[in-house]
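Reviewer 2 asked us to include a model.

Predict the structure of this chain.
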Amino acid sequence: MILFLCKRFAGLIALLIVLSTLVFFFTRSLPGDVAALYVGGNAKPEQIERARIELGLDKPLYVQYQRYMVRLLHGDMGTSLRTHRPVFQDLLEKIPMSFEIVLWALLIATLGGLFFGVLAAYFEGSLIDEIIKWFTSAAVSVPIFFLALLLQLFFFNYLGWFPLQGRMDSILEFTNPIQNITGFSMIDTLISKNFPAFFNVTWHMVLPVVSLLVAPLGVIARLTRTSLLDVMEQDYILAARASGISESVLFFYYGLRNALSPVLTVIGMTVAVILMMTFYVEMIFNWPGIGYYSLAAIMNLDYTAIMGVTLMISAVYVIANTLMDILRRAVDPRIK
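Predicted model (structure tokens):
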């Protein structure tokens, strides 16, 4: 296991270096005068030239790349051309707001997908199996933006059960402001015992989280069912059944454990899917996270912010898949 972890860690570092290099050269190929964007409108030529020197754009490309990698190793992603603040500081403020709904969506999608997948496989061919297969097919097929708008229309416009958008009610932002401790609204409100804000934030979070989790839940459930049924047809399961081992032990102990390996791989890939879908969700629900920050960066050709967001999402995806590989190795020692 130690050798396995060392190999994975070395591969993770190498992949992050490659991603950083690709992101750097891709953003440098974007059109537009970066120095002029940094200074702002009605900038004079001498101001643009000073900005170009300040940003290091007067240096050759390989020197810019060298400086970028050295700064990146020290946690410096550069200065945003739009906010004139360190990109890392901007991301620290926005990432928790996005990760709060992403983590909830991933957790519920994983647990729900495993539950419905196991339930469908256990009752294979029954009405329960048919209902779950129909639901998961519909969940995978519905576009995320359409589902989000449909939830708004039904639960806000018709029923009035949930708020339309935003992180919390505007009145509570003045009467019960959230004290920024960790950046995660639910945790910060609990730590500061700001219970009115806690329940309000939780209520606002329901529809965005549901919008994010439906499609991944369908994928995980269908793969769990397929993998589990395939394992239950293996020769060693048939031999164990012939030796008198109970069906429940075969199904939940031997079958489920061996069926988890491909499911864990898909869960790792689901992280990237949810991260990409959160951009749509944040736009529709006016959620002040990384999606809004990224859109503003793209609209203003803020290449340093674009690099920071792209690198952050890539790093999260790579780390998540590495963790899933480690879990797969722990669940199935046959994986080398």
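The CA atoms of residues 97 and 288 lie 7 Å apart. The radius of gyration is 24 Å. We have added this to the supplementary material.
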